[in-house]
Amino acid sequence: MPVTLPHLSRRAFGRLALASSAAAVGGMWRAAPARAAAPTGEPIRVGILHSLSGTMAISETTLKDAMLMLIAEQNRKGGLLGRPLEAVVVDPASNWPLFAEKARQLLSVDKASAVFGCWTSVSRKSVLPVFEELNGILFYPVQYEGQECSRNIFYTGAAPNQQAIPAVDYLLSEDGGGAKRFALVGTDYVYPRTTNQILVNYLKAKGIAEADIMVNYTPFGQSDWQTIVSQIKAFGSAGRKTAVVSTINGDANVPFYKELGNQGISATDIPVMAFSVGEEELAGMDTAPLVGQLAAWNYFESIDTPANTAFIRQWHEFTKNPKRTTNDPMEAHYIGFNMWVQAVTKAGTTDHDRVIDAMIGIRQPNLTGGVAEMLPDHHLTKPVYIGEIQDDGQFSVVWKTPALVPGQAWSPWVPETKNLIGDWSKPIACGNYNTATKTCLGHRHA
Amino acid sequence: MRRVRTTCLLAALWLGAMVLPGHGARADAFADLASPQLGAVTAAISTLAASPDPQAEAALQALGERSLFAAPDGSVYIRHGESYVEARTGQPPATVPEGLKPIRLNNRIRTALAGVQAGRDLLAPQPATRLRAADALYARHDPAMLPVVEHALAVEKDAAVRTRLTEVRAATILGQPPAPDALASRLEAVRTLGAVGGAQARGILAGVAGSDAEAPALRREAQAAVSRIDWHLRAWGVAQNAFYGLSYGSVLLLAATGLAITFGVMGVINMAHGEMMMIGAYVTWMVQQAIRATVPALEPVAILVAIPVAFVVCGALGIVIERGLIRFLYGRPLETLLATWGLSLILQQAVRSIFGPTNIAVQTPGWLSGSVAVGGMDITLNRLAILVFAGLVLGGLMLVLRRTPLGLQMRAVTQNRRMAALMGIRTPRVDALAFGLGAGLAGLAGVAVSQIDNVSPNLGQSYIIDSFMVVVFGGVGNLWGTLAAALALGMGGKVLEPTIGAVSAKIAILVLVILYIQRHPRGMFPVRGRGVES
């Protein structure tokens, strides 16, 4: 490696910025004009695999923009290994088979050193075989149902034990209203079904009777919620505190909340805890009737830390729109990207195997004042926040877990997987290791 | 994780034990409002609510409005605009301390505050306010509120409020643990609630009927009341479901009427029909924004202004599409299908590029929000408005088709294009106007849908399949068929949904429609005549 003075100072500056948490982001932004010359050499390609058209564009376009911002900033700081980063943006158009095709293109044609992408679980399942076959690296930034642990994927969103379980704990607690009955309402696909299976087992273990749990699924894009909301209302009028746990996806949330408001159900009557409603979704709603409704995430835009303030300012400047909101998956990409930068720096190469091995144990300050650590099962340690919707479309945090929660790839609340762990560090190096029989069940759990 | 939590809990308890005696000695309810323990906060709220101090009321109100702040030393301040006053005294402090943080407000605190507010409102001068407070207390039936309710009942003069308060008292009494000497009052409470009916009363009575601690006579009485209420609830449930079916059917009808013209009357397979609805919804939003920026006073009626605007904009766009694209493809259904599908993608992406991919917030005016109770059912106002609107649109369309020259010409062209042309009708002009009419109707549907669904570039896609299904099921070219099909599909869906779930209901309806179309390929009300065969 040619050791030149500007190169050294650039590296040193980069490391300093990554190591220090809070003010670093803001500092880098302001320090940018004073940086050394632009990086030269063969660019390192970073794939961005987010839908820019079709139904998922509503959520995924924002993540593409966030990645472009992070990559531009890294280049301003001198790139990576002295080489510039180049974003390769593809549009899988919310079409699951197209995700696999585009992933193959990114890995074999564009030779992407890392890919940041996917939102829905079905798109991740669709690209997983491609990443394993071509030994790529995927950073997946969305909260999901768990029950998966691939060597080639880093799950920077929440596993169920980092969102669903703490959220239900809050609802059960006296501060959260002490709910005794639960309506689990979701869209009919893999994430709500798996999450609800975990939650039903968990609630039963907490002493909630079967008759006090109602599970309901609706098709994608459901817009007529009249019957279901009136069922929830009837379910909630049995004289005991009732709460709704919502895994309703994307667009269907707006008509659901509208119907709740119109049928006169307020958060103090029957609180709704949502796992897929963030700042972005609220942007399309009049939130006055929703005040007090809940959401569980690992990040909220309203959390007041210097790092978050700097990140939001940078986002507004990058998008030239002071109203653009930030959200949880954006923070996941922020953490994932910076971890990858650290791992590549540590490994001194973008070679996939060496970067994957270097990733485990990397620590990166998150935006809310904690430190995310990449665990051997490729999940992160995360804080869990419960936020209540305010009339300005933001969330105010009403509760947080006392400590960071380590992500669990396999849920202990599902009988088939209760003895499984993922551990990609040596000597186990297995995504589905059975701790009872001390055997690896193979590359991937069927 | 659990061990960590236990440790934290122990630490909190230990700290609490250290701190609490001090608090107890000072009995400072104002400072307790800022306590991290929500139990202490709710206790402070009760203390302050009972206090005659006028500052207490101001502090509670500020807490509910999130304008109550705590300093690091525990003192509490109320924010008025940019300035602060001390909560305890109402006087501005000598210096505003650094690091003021808003006191957190969650549902538990909000519930406690609402209880305090309702208790206070029971003695308000306006009977309407008192009635609202009584309703709120009925929903809560908090046993601790019994003395407040008794007191209000003793001084209440208004008959309606008295009746409601009696019911509130009954619900509150039954919320208390059973005691042998309270049997008479509890029995009366059960009778009162049995007469009130409704799901809430049923819940309370079922609790009494199922409790082993209650006297057998009381349980029998409660059980009988529960059975009676159940019967009522079932009957009202049927009516409620019928309304849901009608409402769902009216949305389908609105979405399908435009298609009934373009596909049903003209025979054009228009895959961009949903996008016309989407554009109608975006027009609604733009009209709202424009009115808010110019004459904010008119904002509640912006939606009414949007109706003609959306019709004209979408209608004009429809005419442009017909002249620019469709007219080259008459008689080539496959190419029309592909071309209009391509057009739908172009329109979606264009809207996405201009307005962004995220949802936009179309406001629902106050007069369209909420619901009215009719007997045992809730009629939501926005759904009711859409039901009426769908009826008006269909009626208006019927008039246009049967009473205007354009309608006559359209029907003539549909039945026999060549003969109509020979009679001097300018068929290209009629085609363009008919397509424009269909597109305009889709725009109207978009205005309606913006009130119940989210408005994003994807809006149209969720309606296109249903619209085609309605038109084909009803019989192509027959408006009455479209009406019947929309209502049948709406009702069918809502009858099936409570028993087999929304997903299976959707599948079942689709299967039933396919089976029906198999036997009756031309739908429920096929158009008969010589011209149609070609």
Automatic annotation (TrEMBL), chain A:
<protein>
    <submittedName>
        <fullName>Urea ABC transporter substrate-binding protein</fullName>
    </submittedName>
</protein>
<dbReference type="InterPro" id="IPR028082">
    <property type="entry name" value="Peripla_BP_I"/>
</dbReference>
<dbReference type="Pfam" id="PF13433">
    <property type="entry name" value="Peripla_BP_5"/>
</dbReference>
<dbReference type="InterPro" id="IPR006311">
    <property type="entry name" value="TAT_signal"/>
</dbReference>
<dbReference type="InterPro" id="IPR017777">
    <property type="entry name" value="ABC_urea-bd_UrtA"/>
</dbReference>
UniProtKB/TrEMBL annotation, chain B:
<dbReference type="InterPro" id="IPR052157">
    <property type="entry name" value="BCAA_transport_permease"/>
</dbReference>
<dbReference type="Pfam" id="PF02653">
    <property type="entry name" value="BPD_transp_2"/>
</dbReference>
<dbReference type="GO" id="GO:0006865">
    <property type="term" value="P:amino acid transport"/>
</dbReference>
<comment type="similarity">
    <text>Belongs to the binding-protein-dependent transport system permease family. LivHM subfamily.</text>
</comment>
<dbReference type="InterPro" id="IPR001851">
    <property type="entry name" value="ABC_transp_permease"/>
</dbReference>
<dbReference type="GO" id="GO:0022857">
    <property type="term" value="F:transmembrane transporter activity"/>
</dbReference>
<protein>
    <submittedName>
        <fullName>Branched-chain amino acid ABC transporter permease</fullName>
    </submittedName>
</protein>
<keyword id="KW-0813">Transport</keyword>
<keyword id="KW-1133">Transmembrane helix</keyword>
<dbReference type="GO" id="GO:0005886">
    <property type="term" value="C:plasma membrane"/>
</dbReference>
<keyword id="KW-1003">Cell membrane</keyword>
<keyword id="KW-0029">Amino-acid transport</keyword>
<keyword id="KW-0472">Membrane</keyword>
<keyword id="KW-0812">Transmembrane</keyword>
<dbReference type="InterPro" id="IPR017779">
    <property type="entry name" value="ABC_UrtB_bac"/>
</dbReference>
